[in-house]
Amino acid sequence: MMVMSVSVPWNLLPDEISPEWVNKGDNIWQLTAATFVGLQSVPGLVILYGSIVKKKWALNSAFMALYAFAAVVVCWVGWCYQMSFGESMFPFLGRPNVALGQKFLVRRAFAGEFPSATMVFFQLMFAAITLILIAGALLGRMNFRAWMLFVPLWLTFSYTVCAFSIWSTRGWLYKLGLIDYSGGFVIHLSSGVAGFTAACWVGPRAIKDRERFPPNNILLMLAGAGLLWMGWTGFNGGDPYTVSIDASLAVLNTHVCTAMSLLTWLFLDILFFGKPSVIGATQGMITGLVCITPAAGVVQGWAAIIMGMMSGSIPWYTMMVLHKEIKVLKHVDDTMAVFHTHAMAGCLGGILVGFFADPKLCRLFYQVQDWQYYTGLAYGILNGRAKEGFKQMGVQLLGIVFVILLNVTTTTIVCLLVRAIVPLRLHEDDLQVGDDAVHGEVAYALWGDGQTLVDTANDTNLTFEKNNHEWSNVQLKASSGV
């Protein structure tokens, strides 16, 4: 039997490697939850984006997501984590600093009974998926080099401000008592608004692509969507930073709301269009996941069902009806409709949690006993504390306004800065070709699918074609009895 030796850093004592304050169960769950969230991006959204677009954009769309994930990892540990959760530099932003120092990583995180290394990893997954969601609005025409610049700039100047203001205990909106359980504001409202704004600056897809943009593989799209749905177990279940009753409630509410939203969207598609749409059901799934996110662990199950019905109907109405009537929505080419599925659904969830938030569950999550904070309007009226309920609703609305203004402003500045360096949009000739023009590669290199043959005796492709032709003749003769 071979005994494996464990390498211990020379300057760490055994009790420092696993100190008493580390809760092994919490640490395991937090790392697992972070991995679930990571799988939503890679491979979840990579697969979903690569399959829901036109075939000629499959590779580029998937690669935009993969690149964003890798770029965020480096920026996050380099300076963005500390800007989001570190020492305060302004009421809305932390001080830039590296998050890779050994002394920092092994000490206790700002919340939870696990090391900072675990917290850095967990929060990294949230930052990464936010940028990938923005990419959904830009598929099929953004210059990849421009995207390479956009990702670190937007992460640095927009995401960190939102995260610090709302999630850091030093942030000004956190101190006001804004409820954003797991990112309805920081991730979904931000990505929806930023994606829509960036799409406005980048410009629309080619005319033919806007007129007809069929998915190249709906079954594969469903696989990506399934990873997204199941990964949300870690997305919302990991935010109490502990293995608790609240985490269990958040996970259950997530799936209940999502299922209700999907069914509501499906019912409306059948009622008004006569056919159950697979893509429509997927959109309903996403709006349900987004809507419950700011409320997952602080609302009761019955409220999650109501939120699911509203998230499956209100974004459906804005996408299917208002989108065709409002000039600005028609003008901006939002490829994956992130404005409706993330901005609208995130905004809806932020308002509904201000109404349905249960003060008892909020006190369990936020560890506070003061009634003036975290009291949903419905419970405030029911318990004779309407003033606190209206105050909470006001804070939620203030948070929505802040996130919208921040992302419209910073996204515009970032796009203008990038445009001064490289074009935001691909050249018209490249738009007609797609993946092959941008990357020199294609997603589906199938025989006879646009490839040209060189008519030479030594050409392998030609030889293959001749052999294939001869074999077809043999089969034809056999079937005809010759």
From TrEMBL:
Gene Ontology cellular-component annotations: plasma membrane
Bilayer topology annotation: Multi-pass membrane protein
Top-level taxon of the source organism: Eukaryota
GO biological process, one term: response to symbiotic fungus
Pfam name, any one: Ammonium_transp
Keywords, ordered alphabetically: Ammonia transport, Cell membrane, Glycoprotein, Membrane, Transmembrane, Transmembrane helix, Transport
Ranges annotated as spanning the membrane: 28-50, 57-79, 120-139, 146-169, 181-202, 214-232, 252-274, 286-317, 337-357, 397-422
Domain Ammonium transporter AmtB-like: 29-444
Subcellular location: Cell membrane
GO MF annotation: an example: ammonium channel activity
Major location category of this protein: membrane
Record-linked PANTHER family: AMMONIUM TRANSPORTER, AMMONIUM TRANSPORTER MEP2
Family named by the database record: Belongs to the ammonia transporter channel (TC 1.A.11.2) family.
Protein name: Ammonium transporter
Species, as recorded: Clitoria ternatea (Butterfly pea)
